[in-house]
Amino acid sequence: MTGRKFLLLVGLLSGVVGGRGLAVEAGTGPGEALSPTGETAPSPAQDAGPSAPGPSAPGASDRVIAEARAALAAKDYQRAMELLPPLADDGVVWAQVQLGEMYWGGLGVAQDYKEAARWWRLAATAGDAEGELALGGAYAMGIGVPRDDAEAVHWIRLAAEQGNATAAFNLGSAYALGRGVGQDYEQAIHWFRTAALQGNALAQSSLGSAYAFGHGVAQDYEQAVHWFRLAAEQGNAGAQFNLGLAYHSGRGVAPDDVQAVHWWLLAAAQENAPAQYSLGASYYHGLGVPKDLVSAYMWFNIAAADPNQSMAAKAAQMRERVAALMTPAEIAEGQRRSAEWRPGTTADADAGSRAKQP
Question: Which of 62, 112, 162, 339: CA 20 to 30 A from 208?
Fold first, then answer.
């Protein structure tokens, strides 16, 4: 897609079937008492990737379509807005979807959600999966159209039945939450699996959560790890956290705190507060890494800034516990490191591997 991100019906399933991760033991150890699959609630939008033009209506110019695609790729939205309307008026569904995106994002034109929904409806009515998904998302959000969960599910289902992986994930989420449709974990699993087999990382992570907690499927930690790993390798922060938690707890995989730290570091770099908390606990206890109070303080301090008040309070409590064992100079160093830390920082992402070396 161009600039607009495709709407998610509900976001991650983790809060529905996931509970609080693979393990929720109380205490101060890594990976406990955390959010669903280690992810904070995401934006209700997901990038569905670039779409290809649909079949051209009679008389539509392939040259104009190519020029419009080039303008979008170059982010020349003014030129794109000159080219897309005639194509859309001529019935080219790809242009209709793109024009909806332009109005949705205010790209080269004044932002107008109702106009975006109007163009998506034209594409959806013509049977275009991207248009169906976009229109369904608009109904789920209640933006540009009145909020209507049943109508959202109607359009998203049509897209999912055409093989759209993002729509399949959203339909699975709808069944898991009972939003716009009766709650049905078996149907949720069906659609999550459909999307997961197409490589959708959110569906893979959600399927891992389902296996971890036995929702819609028999509880199977090995299968949970399998799906968490696939999503984690695609960079899904929640799956990275849960995969680390699996290694820490030894559920579905041989216990390995070095591997746990590896995956938590990757998730922490994406501002995953549960992973940041778990890293603090790992350094505090010396699990998977050498015991290091300064590093423990740093990660607890970073997690304490999380918008989730429960998570922040828990991290702050641990930060103060660690601080009681530190010198003023060590506390100052921990504060300096946490202040200088930036999202995406993976400088010590191989800390666990280094710790494993003699």
Answer: 162
What is the rounded distance in angstroms from the CA atom of residue 82 to the CA atom of residue 258? 55
**Spatial contact of 173 and 9, defined as CB atoms under 8 Å apart:** yes
The pLDDT of residue 294: 98
User: Residue 247 and residue 32: Cα distance in Å, rounded?
Assistant: 13
Tell me the one-letter amino acid at 152: A
pLDDT band of 222, cuts 50, 70, 90: very high
- The identity of residue 225, as a single letter, is V
Residue the block writes with tokens 């891992």: 208
At 181, the pLDDT band (50, 70, 90 cuts) reads very high
Are 173 and 13 within 8 A, CB to CB? yes
Percentages (nearest 5) of helix, strand, coil residues in the chain? 60, 0, 40
In angstroms, rounded to a whole number, what is the distance separating the alpha carbons of residues 204 and 213? 14
The helix-helix angle for 129-141 and 93-105 (nearest 10°) equals 30
What are the residues whose beta carbons fall under 8 Å from the beta carbon of 228, sequence distance 6 or more?
A: 204, 205, 208, 239, 242, 243, 246
User: Do you know the residue count of the chain?
Assistant: 358
- What is the distance between the alpha carbons of residues 208 and 321, in angstroms, rounded to a whole number? 34
Taking the alpha carbons at both ends of the chain, their separation in whole angstroms is: 49
The Cα-based distances of 67 to 71, 84, 88, 222, 244 in angstroms read 6, 10, 14, 49, 46
As given in the structure block, the two tokens for residue 55 are: 């079949």
For 26, the token pair is: 């109380």
Which DSSP letter does residue 289 get?
A: S
